[in-house]
Amino acid sequence: MPGTEATAESKINLERTRGALVLWSDGHGIAQGQLADVFSRSRKLRRIITKTLSHVTNVLLERTWSDKLERLSVHARLATENVSYLVHEDTDSQIDAASASASDISSDSIGEIAEDLRTDAQYLVAIELLLKNPILDPDPGYALEDFVGTWNPAQLYADKIESRYPLADKDPITLLAEANFKRYLRCQGARDAQENAENQEVADETDVAGTFIAASQFHDSGIGTSIAPTTSYAETVMSYRQEGRSVRIPPLPEEA
Asked: Can you tell which superkingdom this protein's organism belongs to (predicted)?
């Protein structure tokens, strides 16, 4: 181990972390390749697992040291570098980073190393649900355009009818579904036409109402009273005939 001797607390943390990693690996059969098929079909899951395990390996190789690790380090380092290609990382930059960390070994304490390993172990345990329900890669032969091009809106009605009458024949279900969909289109068209007519009627009423000016819209700024618009009309002259004569009735005076 680099630096100072490991404290009792650090030893306990390291032992717990080792136990958690062993249980996690045995529980999922990592060493036996039980998840190889899932990894091959889930690029996201494969990247997460390999990147985390690669970090654990780097910590053990570069920040800790013993005679046993010295004998295993060559093979382990080659395996770690191969894993770097799986997670699409630059191997040269990884080696440089490992060399830089190796040169700074004296600055790492056992407590820091134990904490890093514990964090990695907790992360692997936390993604337990992702291991049980992995996000699989889409089928390369699947084309969204093909699905959209062959989708029939009437199928929604067919599914509802089939779920209610599972023993019914397919042909009557298809005919009923298409009839319901056509009725929906007719009703939707009628609703749209009625709504457009109502909107046009409201617009026409708004235009007509805008041509009239209410009297309250005119105000005398001097006295604050409303003055209605004035319109000139010809004076009305009434006449009627009586006993062969035409009698004219003059208009009423302004006082009337």
From this structure: Eukaryota
